[in-house]
Amino acid sequence: MPPPYELHLFVCTNRRPEGAPKPSCGHRGGEEIRAALKKAVAKHGLRARIRANAAGCLDVCEEGPAIVVYPQGVWYVGVRPEDVDEIVESHLLRGEPVARLVRRVGMPVVE
Ligand code: FES
């Protein structure tokens, strides 16, 4: 049986307590990004094929908000809520990841 979704977008919505030494995506728009992605997926009739899940920390905190798209293994960092339409139209509808937001595999993590 095939997996139920072609793509999963895991959106970091992690929230650390005030004063934590690292930033967290939930405080920088992660929840808003996930909500906007879910809405856009529904608007474009993609709900049976694509799912936007909330995720815990993806361990690129300094570069967040972060999204990882599986099974493609495409990582987005520095995503803003206003980038969601471009991600949906370019990546999800046309299959072209938004290059300016893609984090290359193997890039050192910013500490
Ligand atoms: S808090 Fe989002 S990547 Fe760590």
Describe this structure in words.
The protein is of the alpha+beta class. Helices cover 23% and strands 19% of the residues. A five-stranded mixed sheet has the order 2-1-3-4-5, with helices on one face. Strand 3 (67-70) and strand 4 form a beta hairpin.
Percentage of residues in strands: 15-25%
CATH T-level topology of the domain at 7-79:
Glutaredoxin
User: Which ions, cofactors or small ligands are bound in this entry?
Assistant: FE2/S2 (inorganic) cluster
In DSSP terms (H or I, runs of 4 or more residues), the helix count works out at: 2
Q: List low-pLDDT spans.
A: none
Strands ordered across the widest β-sheet: 2-1-3-4-5
How far apart lie the N and C ends?
42 Å
Q: What's the story with the biggest beta sheet?
A: 5 strands, mixed
Report helical residue fraction. 10-25%
The overall pLDDT, averaged over residues, is 94
Just give the CATH class of the domain at 7-79.
Alpha Beta
- Number of DSSP-assigned strands: 5
Task: Output the radius of gyration.
Answer: 14 Å
Gist of the model:
This protein is an alpha+beta fold and 111 residues long. It has a domain of 73 residues: Glutaredoxin (3-Layer(aba) Sandwich).
What are the main properties of this structure?
5-stranded mixed sheet; Glutaredoxin; alpha+beta; binds FE2/S2 (inorganic) cluster; 111 residues; 5 strands
